[in-house]
Model the fold of this input.
Amino acid sequence: MPVLDGIETTRQLTDRYPGVAVVVLTTYADDDSIIDALEAGARSYLTKNADRADIAQTLRSAATGLSVIDPAVRATLVKAAAARRRKAPERPRPGQLPDGLTQREAEILSMIAQGMTNPDIAAELYLSTHTVKTHVNRIFAKTRSADRGAAIRYARDHQLG
Done:
């Protein structure tokens, strides 16, 4: 691709058209390539070893909102996710959470406080951006925050970010 690479193309497509279902078909099966594509908004990831039937089924699945990860790269993705989890900062315990925040809401609030966008959070937690938006709206309601800035102040005041 002469002007943009696949990752940046995916990022721009999903930013401009949030409902678009991007399916990556590539020769790259390393964890950085996979994670970069998913963080950019790709819904599915196949290697060029996939046959026509797999590609067709993946396209149909992506169009209905499902994600498909090539079997050849699943182990790589699971290994990368496990490595990230080991590096992740300790999360607050449920008994320590203020204002009825759930564990997941506290985790997302912490990520907001780190400057992450909803698509970044979705990719990091392997959630849809719609699910992240729902959590963010609940966080705003529970913390009585009008915007991300207020939520960040709340997170810092409560040692959540």
